[in-house]
Design brief:
about 50% helix, binds 5-O-phosphono-beta-D-ribofuranose, 5-stranded parallel β-sheet, single chain, alpha/beta
């Protein structure tokens, strides 16, 4: 699945990889007795359409997943948020996931809790990379969502990040890095954000060291 995910990321830049991926998907479907998909392409994005979409399994997921949206906005990455469930509204989910191919969306972030199969369902129809953020929505505190989203059967990858808020933020950065494969400006904006995180840590560490007696200050010799 890691190999297919890497190919999905590169497919937006290299048409020959997109073609190879389509053939791989068709072979997999044929082995299970299903017809090949129509050839969609994620290369021809609508000019003002979203580059990344954030899908939530329930309205109750949006509190956490707005962190992804906020960071995507800070990174100047066009995005939209949508709510649909894989078991509560399966047809709405299927239609939305298929539409993402036609709209040229470059990556999808999915936040869901409980038995979080939503990311896998999106990945069944959407041809680009899918990032899953498992959410802590039940008494199992996210273990249920983590285990159900991370154990995808081979052939249909979903990349999973950490449970909850930390994962929601990292999903935005990872989606930005995926865009960065073919968009140098996006890559630079994500890197600038990372540098900001580093300089914040250094400032906070320096302030802490300054508050300690000289002999207790850690140093590189
Ligand atoms: C999942 O069930 C959703 O992703 C959500 O995390 C969880 C609980 O949903 P609600 O009962 O709060 O709508 O489908």
């Amino acid at each position: 699945n890691a190999g297919v995910l890497a190919a999905q990321i590169l497919a937006a830049k290299y048409p020959e990889i997109a073609e190879g991926l389509s053939q791989h998907n068709d072979q997999m479907k044929a082995s299970y007795g299903e017809a090949p998909s129509a050839r969609e392409t994620t290369q021809n994005a609508l000019p003002d359409g979203p580059e990344v979409v954030v899908v939530c399994g329930s309205e109750s997921d949006t509190g956490t997943m707005k962190r992804t949206v906020t960071l995507l906005n800070e990174l100047d990455i066009r995005n939209e948020l949508y709510v649909t469930g894989d078991v509560r509204t399966p047809e709405r989910t299927r239609r939305y996931a298929l539409s993402l191919n036609e709209r040229g969306v470059k990556a999808v972030v999915v936040g869901a809790g409980a038995s979080a199969a939503l990311a896998g369902t999106i990945a069944a129809y959407y041809q680009g990379p899918v990032i899953s953020v498992p959410l802590a929505s039940t008494a199992l505190a996210g273990w249920d969502a983590l285990l159900s989203t991370v154990q995808m059967p081979s052939g249909v990858p979903v990349g999973s990040v950490a449970v909850g808020a930390m994962g929601a933020k990292n999903a935005a950065l990872l989606a930005g890095q995926i865009l960065g494969v073919h968009d140098k400006d996006a890559k630079d904006r994500v890197w600038a954000h990372r540098k900001g995180i580093s300089s914040t840590l250094i400032k906070e560490a320096d302030a802490l060291l300054d508050s300690l007696p000289e002999e207790n200050r850690g140093r590189i010799i």
